[in-house]
Amino acid sequence: MAYISLYRKWRSQNFDEIVGQKHIVQTLKNAISQKRVAHAYLFCGPRGTGKTSIARIFAKALNCKDGPTPSPCGKCDNCVKVRDGHAVDVIEIDAASNRGIDEIRDLREKVRYVPVEGRYKVYIIDEVHMLTSEAFNALLKTLEEPPEHVIFVLATTEASRIPVTIESRCQRLDFSRISLDEVKDHLKKIAEEEKFQIEEKALDLIARNGEGSMRDSVSLLDQLASYAGNTITVDNVVDLLGCADEELLFSIANSIAQNNVAELLQQLREAIDKGRSAVQILRDLIMHFRNILLLKFKASEALELTKEYLVKLETQAAIFEVEKVKKIIHLLSRIELDMKWHPHARLVLEVGLLDVLENTVPTLPPVIQKIETKTFVTIDSSPAQVAHSPLFNKVKELWGEILEKVKKKSLYGFVSLHEGEPVEITNDGKLIISFRKGYSFHKERLLEAKNKSSVEEIIKEVLGTAISIDCKIENSEKTTKPQVTIDTVKDIFEGEIV
Questions:
Q1: Which positions carry the signal peptide feature in this UniProt record (predicted)?
Q2: Domains in the chain with CATH codes
């Protein structure tokens, strides 16, 4: 037997199983009980909130052998056929692929025929906003005065695109996003029935990423079960989504508050090296500061967060001023727009966050950053020269100080230099900075006249000797041949895992 996706397997089959949308359910149940069923309904709301599911249950309730009834049996032939999508009298139309006037004219011809198996012919037109203007006009008269045996249910995620003439002939019902707690409770129920072991924090992260869509949340749970098996942890969710985990968001926000450039860049580097998406990190960061802003305005009731997360967020919110948070959100939103047009998302994120630090006044005293001197491995063809060069040894010894001074003089130069390593001083007196594969952009940026000049001035200031710099990409052929993995490919092409 073919595998059935969880969102299909757990689709609600009667009104009592619907999660959220209590006002919709009550309206339709009362309409059936009081025999006040309208000839046309317009279901408006975000994706995954139950529009199509409720439309099918409504059709089942009208055509059940015990009906019309607000509690369809689910066992009679009509109920079973509606459930399985085989009901002759329940016609589902995808307006995105049947949007022209010819399809609507065909519909107008067929509505005249009486039902074959049930009491009503129910037309469910999904994404109805996709119909052309001509198609809407063709539907108008039929929608206004349909035969007594026909019920129309129009569903849309974009109510603003529905012509007023169409909307005025329907009873409009607005679906709301499903609350975080309702999504979590339903996911927990599914996990128990499917024998999944899942962490509470993982449930919370899945529900938050579903953004009020039950279908998206259940689909993500299904995908996680395929990825992690029957035991699902919060790390599995973070790895699969490529999103910023809780600790990363708080750490980055702290670095911004403290104006700590080195720590901020290191956090980003580690996160992206682990496969986090630069785009997703930015989106999560915008939402994080949005949550902080709401807390600053005492609007915590608008946040769908766990108590533990909320306490932690309140502690961090105390170190930010309202104006700074607003400015940070504005700057981060600008970075998101820039990312859409730039092939190097990581670079845009790094430079953009530096702009955030430059353009916001820190609310805490800047932290004095200690940059540890790295131990460098010489990969040049003349290691003896490097190993015995007093000047090169001095460069290595004072590299941390050089980085610190470059950061104060040129943030952009620092971003590039921070990714490189000094590997030798050549016979003609040039200091060679080596970059790993995948960091060619940093190499080229460092060699730009302005950045190169700034770095050389700092080196002269620290060493007391003028040295020009040059750059190269690490020659992997002189080292042990690495195993090619997906992370290797990602680094080479400066890509991201999605």
A1: none
A2: 6-174 (3.40.50.300), 180-241 (1.10.8.60), 246-359 (1.20.272.10), 383-478 (3.30.300.180)
